[in-house]
């Protein structure tokens, strides 16, 4: 069993070795496992964004927007009491899908993608999750989750 030709196909697949009719048995290329700042890496899809600077900027803008939207969905009242079960489920599903999409993009180990994902979450939290951009609560308002000692 020292020769790879004698190994079962399942073992070859587990090792990442391709075996097919007319192809030599060679390992698949390994995924990048260190942070790099390059515009021609692969993010989410093979060969995308390629070597185009415009596509790389589009990727960065998209990841920022997805992270910002995650914060909007996390802090909005779209799924408040009295909302329909379907609406609550759709908001949760959309938020979870976007979170995983941002996570997968960050797993490309591209420094630019990492920075815009963090910036999108931070900016979204500042806009939707803090009092910085909100009207101050009315004194005696019982709809706030914060205790009266914490309100600013």
Care to give the gist of this entry?
With 152 residues, the protein is mainly alpha-helical. It is built from four helices and no strands. It has helices spanning 9-14, 53-75, 85-106, 111-128.
Characterize the structure shown.
- This protein has 152 residues and is mostly helical.
- α2 runs antiparallel to α3 and α2 packs parallel to α4.
- The chain is elongated, with a radius of gyration of 23 Å.
- It is built from four helices and no strands.
- The protein starts with 8 loop residues before the first helix and ends in a 24-residue tail after the last helix.
- The chain is 45% helix and 0% strand.
- It folds into two domains: 30 residues, no CATH class; 98 residues, no CATH class.
- The C terminus is likely disordered.
- The longest helix has 23 residues.
End-to-end C-alpha gap: 71 Å
Report the β-strand fraction as a percent range: under 5%
The ordered string of helix (H) and strand (E) elements is HHHH
Biggest sheet statistics: none
């Amino acid at each position: 069993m020292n020769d790879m030709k004698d190994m079962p196909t399942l073992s070859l697949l587990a090792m990442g070795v391709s075996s097919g009719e007319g192809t030599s048995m060679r390992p698949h290329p390994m995924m990048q496992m260190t942070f790099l700042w390059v515009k021609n890496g692969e993010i989410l899809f093979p060969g995308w964004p390629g070597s185009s600077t415009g596509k790389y900027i589009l990727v960065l803008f998209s990841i920022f927007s997805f992270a910002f939207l995650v914060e909007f969905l996390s802090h909005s009242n779209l799924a408040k009491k009295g909302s329909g079960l379907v609406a609550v489920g759709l908001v949760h599903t959309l938020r979870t899908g976007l979170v995983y999409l941002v996570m997968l993009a960050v797993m490309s180990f591209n420094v630019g993608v990492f920075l815009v994902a963090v910036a999108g979450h931070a900016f979204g939290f500042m806009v939707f999750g803090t009092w910085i951009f909100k009207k101050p609560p009315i004194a005696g308002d019982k709809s706030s989750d914060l205790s009266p000692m914490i309100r600013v």
